[in-house]
Write a structure and sequence with these properties.
The structure holds two protein chains of two kinds.
Chain A: H1 28-45, H2 50-72, H3 75-109, H4 115-119, H5 134-166, H6 170-183, H7 187-202, H8 209-234, H9 237-245, H10 250-278, H11 282-287, H12 306-313, H13 320-348
Helix pairs in contact in A: 1-2, 2-3, 3-13, 5-8, 5-10, 5-12, 6-8, 7-8, 8-10, 9-10, 10-13, 12-13
Chain B: E1 5-14, E2 17-27, E3 32-36, H1 43-49, E4 60-68, E5 71-72, H2 80-86, E6 87-90, H3 102-112, H4 119-132, H5 136-139, H6 152-165, E7 170-174, H7 182-195, E8 200-204, H8 208-214, E9 217-223, E10 230-237, H9 238-243, H10 248-254
Parallel strand pairs in B: 3-8, 3-9, 6-7, 7-8
Antiparallel strand pairs in B: 1-2, 1-4, 4-5, 9-10
Helix pairs in contact in B: 3-6, 4-6
The chains are: A mainly alpha, B alpha/beta.
């Protein structure tokens, strides 16, 4: 008995399925979207508000396309088309506030901005002297820079300890836990801490920008630690071993190999941390005070930042221009910062090819 | 500038786990010594204990003696950093520093130890090391390009150039060709032959033909049984190993009748 005697499966035994099935025309989503827009526009003409009209249009699209697809293409494709539509819809919902915010700030802020607005402080030397937000721009830059100078070295060195030296010993685990706790500190509590610390050190009534920087650095440190930790963890152990095998001491391996390899991500993390604290108001009201005068000494006297200025001006009428202008300036500062960080990260990070 | 290594009664641990037990051998200077054996039998672990790279892993430790040129490596007075300057290492996967150019990668050993040197001196070291690594002609026009832009085989030769730029006494190679194609492998084997006149070379390989081609002496490692520590089964000149080994299990492994 040889294997030839046994029955063999031939290709004709298997059921051949067709690879061709009914499909909607390629432009089907566009066509349905056109109908949906038309329905929405009709609703708008009939006197419905903008929001209901958009919702009805979206609903028409989300119902019509899957139903059409179900009748021709079958269940799987219909589900696919509905989920695609839903995901785009949620994307639009997430984007709407951002676009509206940017649009509002630009539309209302741009008219307020001119050279006087950017170069004069809020302090009037005479009754008809021009005023601006120069003092708050300077204050924002000084206080935020101070916070960065305090928290970036602490944050990066903490992360280096946790990843390179701690190796999950009990002290490192405690530090990690405390960093997590710090992430959750409300900003007003950080402000109270700085207020209490400077009152203890310099007596009651002490106000200065450096106090504000200390308060903000409390909020920044955990973000910097977390971001740097993640980046250091991404550096392959191969590189550390390659460096050790060349007879390089551990600290030089960290400063010359590990940190340069992770620098792009660390810069991004630091920028995110700065963007987070640059808009803080509450802790600064407590410790840095508010003023209309340009103060460039971070160690004495009140200093105003843009968010504090906006908070202070909002109560009295006739200040809308200043508020929107200040908001726009703040957003531009954060955007410029991100831009600089991106360029720096690109230049410093490892290159391929 | 090459030294011999004497190993006696070496036990290697990962925390409480005994990975390699009771190794005795003498690695000759200016010769190539190859280690063969199945995966997980402790070849690489043993290799890493020869330049104290083993202890980089938390909890890893060693008992016994490794003596290089009369100096015991695990003496409390010995600085592991100084040991690694004398005994260089090439790894399984090419690992050039991604932030550095080809030029800086070769000089990394000197630069990372902040050795001050003149430009002409540095140029000379780079050219000499890249020439010894058979890479000079391929990269001489793009020394300032990133090292990561080279092909895998070129990256591995760059790592060898980097290791020999600090002029070590001994060169350890942990499966240096396992990620490379046959042509790059052959380039590196030629290189090992050339380096033999100046360096003591120890190479771990899974490729029996490679061990037979490049090495003067061969050590066969094996596990006593599953879960037991690895040990050195046989250590003999390569010719004898591959023609008339002392141990039947060596012959079984080499001829493919293993297990």
């Amino acid at each position: 008995m040889t294997s030839l005697d046994q029955p063999t499966r031939t290709s004709s035994d298997r059921v051949a399925t067709s690879m061709v099935s009914a499909r909607l025309p390629q432009r089907a989503p566009l066509m349905v979207a056109g109908i949906a827009v038309a329905v929405g526009a009709l609703c708008l003409l009939l006197g419905l508000g903008l929001v209901p009209a958009v919702l009805i249009g979206a609903l028409v699209y989300l119902v019509a396309l899957p139903v059409w697809s179900l009748s021709i293409e079958g269940r799987r494709t219909a589900t696919d088309r509905m989920m695609t539509g839903l995901i785009w819809a949620t994307f639009a919902i997430a984007l709407a506030p951002l676009i509206s915010l940017v649009w509002q700030v630009i539309a209302r802020g741009v008219p307020a901005i001119n050279s006087t607005f950017l170069t004069y402080s809020g302090f009037k030397t005479s009754l008809d002297a021009p005023t601006g937000v120069y003092h708050a721009i300077i204050g924002t830059l000084i206080i935020t820079a101070g916070a960065a100078i305090i928290s970036v070295p602490i944050g990066i060195m903490t992360a280096v300890y946790l990843i390179e030296y701690g190796k999950k010993n009990s002290f490192a685990r405690t530090v990690t836990f405390l960093v997590d706790v710090m992430t959750g500190i409300p900003s007003i509590v950080a402000g109270l801490f700085a207020f209490a610390m400077f009152t203890l050190l310099f007596g009651p009534g002490y106000k200065s920008a450096i106090g504000g920087s200390v308060a903000l650095s409390l909020l920044m440190v955990p973000t910097v630690v977390r971001a740097t930790e993640e980046m250091l963890r991404l550096v392959p152990d191969d590189l550390r071993e390659a460096s050790y095998a060349l007879g390089t001491p551990k600290w030089r391996t960290i400063t010359k190999v590990v940190l340069p390899t992770a620098i792009g991500g660390i810069i991004t993390g630091v920028t995110l941390a700065i963007s987070r604290v640059i808009g803080e108001t509450a802790p600064l009201l407590l410790i840095a005070g508010a003023t209309d005068i340009t103060n460039t000494n971070p160690f004495s006297g009140d200093m105003t930042t843009l968010p504090v200025l906006i908070f202070g001006k909002r109560t009295s009428a006739g200040n809308e221009d200043i508020i929107w202008g200040a908001a726009l300036v703040l957003i531009v500062i954060v955007m410029l910062l991100n831009l600089v960080a991106r360029v720096l990260g690109k230049v410093l990070s490892p290159k391929q090819g | 500038m090459a030294k011999s290594i004497d190993v006696s009664d070496l036990d290697i641990y990962y925390s409480d786990f005994l990975a390699v037990q009771g190794v005795n051998m003498t690695i000759r200077a200016r010769a190539v010594t190859a280690f063969i054996g199945p995966s997980g039998c402790g070849k690489s672990t043993f290799l890493r204990s020869l330049n104290r790279m083993h202890e980089v892993i938390p909890g890893a430790r060693v008992e016994g003696k490794v003596v290089v040129d009369g100096q015991s490596l695990y003496d409390p007075m010995v600085d592991p950093v100084a040991v690694r300057r004398q005994i260089g290492m090439v790894f399984q996967r090419p690992n050039p520093f991604p932030t550095m150019s080809i030029y800086d990668n070769v000089l990394a050993g000197n630069r990372l130890n902040s050795k001050k040197m003149k430009k002409s001196e540095a140029d000379a070291i780079v050219e000499k090391s890249l020439r010894s690594a058979n890479l000079w002609n391929e990269v001489k026009d793009r020394l300032n390009k990133p090292g990561m832009g080279l092909s895998g085989g070129q990256q591995q030769r760059l790592c060898i150039a980097r290791a020999i730029a600090v002029e070590p006494q001994v060169l350890l190679m942990d499966e240096p060709c396992s990620a490379l194609d046959p042509i790059s492998t052959s380039a590196i084997e030629d290189l090992i032959h050339e380096l033999k006149s100046d360096y003591t070379i120890v190479i771990v390989t899974h490729n029996m033909q490679q061990a037979a081609r490049v090495s003067d002496e061969t050590g066969f490692f094996n596990l006593k049984a599953t879960g037991e520590p690895g040990h050195l089964v046989e250590f003999n000149p390569t010719k004898k190993m591959f023609s008339n080994p002392d141990e039947p299990s060596t012959e079984a492994y080499i001829s493919g009748r293993f297990g």
